[in-house]
Amino acid sequence: MGGYNFEEYRVEDTYTKFVKTAQDSGYFSGDLVLKCIGNSIYLQNIVDEEDYVISCTQNVVQQDTMKEYIKAVAVIIRTYLYHLISENIYMFPDSLPYWKYTGVGNISKLVETAVKETNGEVLTYIGTPIYPFITYCTGGFTVPYEEIFGDTLAYSISVEDSLSRNCPFFTWKIKIPVEEIKYFTGIEKLDSVKIINFTTHLIPDTIVFYKGDDKLVLRGPALYQTLYPRLPSPSFQIEMTGDTLVFEGKGKGILIGLPLWSAKQMALNGESYSKILNYYFPVSELTKITSR
Questions:
Q1: At what angle do helices 109-117 and 67-86 cross, to 10 degrees?
Q2: pLDDT per residue over 49-91, tens digit each?
Q3: What percentage of the chain exceeds 70 in pLDDT?
Q4: Angle, vertex CA 283, rays to CA 221 and CA 269, nearest 5
Q5: Element (H or E) spanning 20, and its range?
Q6: Is 12 exposed, middle or buried (0-12, 13-18, 19+ CB in 10 A)?
Q7: Do residues 208 and 194 touch, judged by C-beta distance below 8 A?
Q8: What InterPro entries does this protein map onto (predicted)?
């Protein structure tokens, strides 16, 4: 196992074995925990909170050098972390693109500084860290949580986002063969598809796929999540042409929260990270929390 020494090994039950490294594993700081559950192996990396923040921030900003933009991203990552902790959630999957910890071996000095300068800062609503979101860009406005997921978050509201207009994904058009859709719809051969209605911010609220007397009803976000990443966002029109579905839409990503494209433009325009966050999260407060 790469020369690691294990300080603990135990059988937790009939199906679960547990091993833990005796020291930091280098690139992935903190303890590595390997769990064998049934026929699956799960690798857990137990890390310090700020190591998680700095790793995810680096993943999001990549080579960008706009410090205020990087600081805004760092606060969002930290807010996400402390929101989950407030819900007693301590295990995060590595399948979410903006929230994936990949170690601290290649952190730029700029990211390191930005994270340190925002140490302990999170966005809160009525004293509790919010559940923030990151999207790449929007179609001219952010979308409230309820229009994507159905239930309501009081602090998730729509704001105008004119800066996304210069993004290549502000408008887009893609074509997907009907053949590829049938595996999701369960309809062998579609006759037609129609969007019945939209939400206030142009999210398809009812999409009906027809095949004779059979039909399947979906919401736009469900189709987006199924076809992701081929479908850039859940805001779109859809038309069936022959054996092809033509999607025309706006924005890239979930469309909620902080649009990275626009946040970067605000930083380029000289705005501070606090002003960027206040604009996209107008009913939340930038709060300094104490270390756990």
A1: 60
A2: 999 999 999 999 999 999 999 999 999 999 999 999 998 877 7
A3: 87
A4: 85
A5: strand 16-21
A6: exposed
A7: yes
A8: SpoIID/LytB, SpoIID/LytB_N
What distance in Å separates the CA atoms of residue 210 and residue 100, rounded to the nearest whole number?
Answer: 39
Give the sheet arrangement for strand 31-37, strand by strand: 6-11, 16-21, 31-37, 40-46
Q: What phi and psi values does residue 119 have, to the nearest 5 degrees? A: -50, 125
DSSP for 140-167, please give it: SB---HHHHHSS--TT----B-GGGGGS
Nearest CA-CA partner of 257 in 146, 132, 139 = 132
The pLDDT score that the predictor gives to residue 266 is 98
Alpha helix locations (H) across 118-253?
Answer: 145-149, 178-185, 220-227
Q: Which of 255, 251, 190, 242 is nearest to 218 (CA)?
A: 190
What pTM was estimated for this model as a whole? 0.86
Helices (H) and strands (E) in the chain, counts: 8, 15
- Total length of the chain: 292
Cα separation of 256 and 259, whole Å? 8
Higher-pLDDT residue of 4 and 231 is: 231
Which two structure tokens, joined as six digits, stand for 62? 């990549």
Flag whether pLDDT at 208 surpasses 90.
Answer: yes
How many CB atoms are closer than 10 A to CB 151? 6
At 284, phi and psi to the nearest 5? -100, 160
